[in-house]
Automatic annotation (TrEMBL):
InterPro entries: AAA+_ATPase (IPR003593), ABC_transporter-like_ATP-bd (IPR003439), ABC_transporter_ATP-bind (IPR050166), P-loop_NTPase (IPR027417). The keyword Flavoprotein does not apply. This is ABC transporter ATP-binding protein. GO terms for molecular function: ATP binding; ATP hydrolysis activity. Pfam families: ABC_tran. CDD domains: ABC_NrtD_SsuB_transporters. Keywords: ATP-binding, Nucleotide-binding, Transport. SUPFAM superfamilies: P-loop containing nucleoside triphosphate hydrolases (SSF52540). Gene3D superfamilies: P-loop containing nucleotide triphosphate hydrolases (3.40.50.300).
Amino acid sequence: MSGKTLRIDGVTRTFPARGRTPPTLALQPTSLAVAPGEFVAILGPSGCGKSTLLRIVAGLDRPTAGTVSLEGRPVAGPGPDRGMVFQSYTLFPWLTVERNIRYGLVERGLPEAEQAAIAARFIARTGLAGFEHHWPRQLSGGMQQRTALARALANDPEILLLDEPFGALDHQTRELMQELLLEIWEGDRKTVLFVTHDIDEAIFLANRVLVMSARPGRIKAEVPVPLPYPREWTVKTTPEFGALKARLMAEIREEVRRAAVSAGA
């Protein structure tokens, strides 16, 4: 099992006033521990602060109060111990698939031969063989996200952070990417924190699903997923999966209604 314990202690985030817009409380005090090798999914309505929380863990944003630490070491900014995959396609358009995957390795100053070997391994694992020298503009959305995932994993991070990584993909490609991610996780057991709007996706992938309230966000429910690994797509047709989905749908619907009422107020 790989990774280090992630601790989020009393984290809040308030965005400051802008012009006539008053300060916005995005996150209420939030505390969470993610064990090494655990796969945790975060569900919640739009605007509830789940992506803000992930960005704070990544070091791309700072909490107004509270702390984030990895194995007791405070998170003060981005670092190679955390790999991030975004919903939007974030590949460097001037680099080929292989060079995108090698980007973090180049920044770390690894020898050329080691970079090439690591990139080749993750190109094979993510089904990108034959596309090494393609430019991002020549790839489908699914292939671009395979490249982004390979780039994050190539750096061998302690924790993998994924913010709606498959949200822009068509249904069939999305399911294939879920299966690919799960296959990689089952092999490596990286610590994963995964933000999604998709209930089926959260249940299929995670050990544990956290439900966030409407803004200002807080963790309002924690639902263990006792389905055994390895998981095949057929698990989605089982009564156990259906029961978990019904429970999470009830939690989410309540928060979506609250968010809609708040928006109309």
